[in-house]
Specification:
The protein is built from 3 helices and 2 strands. With 99 residues, it is mainly α. A two-stranded antiparallel ribbon has the order 1-2. β1 and β2 form a beta hairpin.
Length: 99
Amino acid sequence: MKITEKEVRYVADLANLRLTPEEIGRMVHDLDEILSHMDRLNEVDTTSVEPMAQVLYDAEETATLRADAERTPLSNQDALANAAVSGQGYYKVPRVIER
């Protein structure tokens, strides 16, 4: 086993998740399977494989990228124009994390 229940609980706490005991058990199993699969992938010999700059297909370096053109940045006033609530130059949103 590569990951422990304690580690799953720790990560869930960092993510502010409340997991049931069944969910914790499932996460331990699923994450262990993922890590085992990663270990199997690390065993593959890739010494003769050239690094790829574009993972989709062989193409020129900027084939899938838009042209890099300078533009005037959005002003703070324009950025906040459609905000439901704003103040002091910022969006105001409801508090979602209570710790």
